[in-house]
Amino acid sequence: MRKLEGKVILVAGGGGVGNELARKYAAEGAKVVIGDNHPERGEKTVAEILATGGTASTVPLDGTDEGTIAAAVAHAKAVYGGLDGMHANFAALSMAREDSDPVNISMAVYDKTMEVNARGFLLCTRHAVPAIVERGGGAIIYTSSIAAHVGDPILVAYAMSKAAVHALMRNVAKAYGPSGVRANVIAAGMIETPAWDAIPTEYRTAMENTGKARAAIKSRVARPQDIAAIGTMLMSDDGAYVTGQVLSVDGGTTMLP
Q: Which end of the chain is more exposed for a tag (fewer CB within 10 A), N or C?
């Protein structure tokens, strides 16, 4: 018996991690809706899933556009009969080089980062929760970052937005737990995705070495498959008594109580 057999899951946000989440959830028996603001990415992943006998479809989803989020949930209900899980996985990363410290950061960069990372996850939540409750309960997972609880001298907006997601998750877990909704965060460390291929070799090597130096596991940095494995556990009955938690997937970079 596959772990997610018969479940309907919306993956909000594609890319290296999001595509792997969709592939893994489908391989475990879920009917997957990929919501992405890059349609070609979602369509390619759907084709891969269909070719292996899975069930999936893709819809446009923009974290700054509530209408697309509502439409993605409506699609899951109309095409597959309901919604059992939602994994919010997008982030504003294009402005990372301009995301500095509290004194020097541009408020435009701050506002956009918070709009996508914090407000966008709230919008996903407010549309997914009622659908999951209608289904009799299920799971919400938020992809986050150890930046939420590791002090860094830069990326203040990114870190603040991720800490906000952790607060959102705990609120959902407490408020909707009695209705059968579980909510958890996966806080990722450095992840090697296909996008790394576009990074100059020297810079990519320096990033990887930094990630390994900070972690307890020195052999490699995280991969999308590591996130998908934990996501599968949390979405499935294996995680039936896990809610309100931040699970760090970072090779021991952080070791929180």
A: C
Read off the CATH number of the domain in which 212 is found: 3.40.50.720
Question: Can you list the positions of beta strands (E) in 89-233?
Answer: 138-145, 181-188
190 is in which domain, residue-wise? 8-249
158 is catalytic: yes
pLDDT digits (tens, 9 = 90+) for 194-252: 766 666 777 668 777 878 888 999 999 889 999 999 999 999 999 999 999 999 999 99
Q: Annotated catalytic residue: which of 25, 80, 142, 158?
A: 158
* Residues 142 and 21 sit within 8 Å (Cβ to Cβ): no
The torsion of the CA quartet 151, 155, 160, 165, rounded to 10 degrees, works out to -100
In a domain, 244, yes or no: yes
Q: Among 53, 62, 60, 63, which Cα is nearest to 27's?
A: 53
